[in-house]
Specification:
Helix content: 55-70%
Number of helices: 11
Oligomer: single chain
Shape: elongated
Distance between the termini: 58 Å
Radius of gyration: 24 Å
Number of strands: 0
Largest sheet: none
Length: 212
């Protein structure tokens, strides 16, 4: 039986053609300065399932789509270097690519340092065995946060590690030493330093992009 419903297609080729078509419309909207068309295309491309991050960052630069910069840059930073496609990286403007490499270097170096050097254990005022608590704290750090910081298969953000540390059972470290040591980690902001690195770079990139 024939159906009156129009045929539908969800194959990858159609999605790719849709992205190409939307990018073409974006270029035309920019050439003829049609703001409504540009806004419409940007809205559709923003959540398109087949718009890869490097192309999105390239469009962000070329058409000054400032709202795309932060989420796209952060998504690329969170990916392991080995997952980067050399051809895709070639699409990224040199200034942004340099910033990406720089912040990745900062984060990797910082995470390796945190994994290798345990934050100091802070003895509680009521602790009767500070040396034992310090030893247990170092062992706990090496078996927990340090392992997560350089896990070969899973990327754990520093903020997520901090959340797990705060909710962890730290016994046999006494409660007072555990609370003081965790407060010291929080106060130092060492586990959220990667977010600070990214925000610093993004501030510079945002200024640079707006002045293009």
């Amino acid at each position: 039986m024939d159906s009156d419903e129009p045929p539908t297609s969800t194959n990858t080729k159609d999605i790719q053609e849709s992205v190409s078509f939307l990018i073409l419309l974006l270029k035309m909207g920019a050439v003829f300065n049609i703001d409504v068309a540009k806004s419409h295309v940007i809205c559709h491309l923003d959540t398109h399932p087949n718009l890869d991050l490097t192309t999105k960052l390239e469009l962000c630069h070329h058409f000054q789509i400032i709202s795309w910069l932060s989420p796209t840059f952060k998504a690329l930073v969170s990916q392991p270097i080995k997952s980067f496609d050399p051809l895709g990286l070639g699409q990224i403007p040199t200034h942004i690519l340099h910033a990406l490499i720089q912040v990745k270097h900062w984060i990797i170096t910082h995470r390796l340092t945190l994994a290798a050097i345990t934050p100091p254990a802070i003895a509680g005022f009521s602790c009767l065995t500070p040396a034992i608590c310090a030893f247990k704290w170092e062992s706990m750090w090496r078996e927990g946060p340090a392992e997560m910081l350089h896990h070969p298969d899973i990327f754990y953000a520093g903020h997520d590690i901090l959340v797990k540390l705060i909710s962890a059972d730290l016994s046999p470290i006494c409660q007072n030493c555990g609370e003081m040591s965790i407060f010291n980690v929080q106060d130092s902001r060492s586990l959220v330093m990667e977010e600070i690195f990214i925000d610093e770079i993004l501030g510079e990139l945002r200024t640079w992009l707006m002045n293009q």
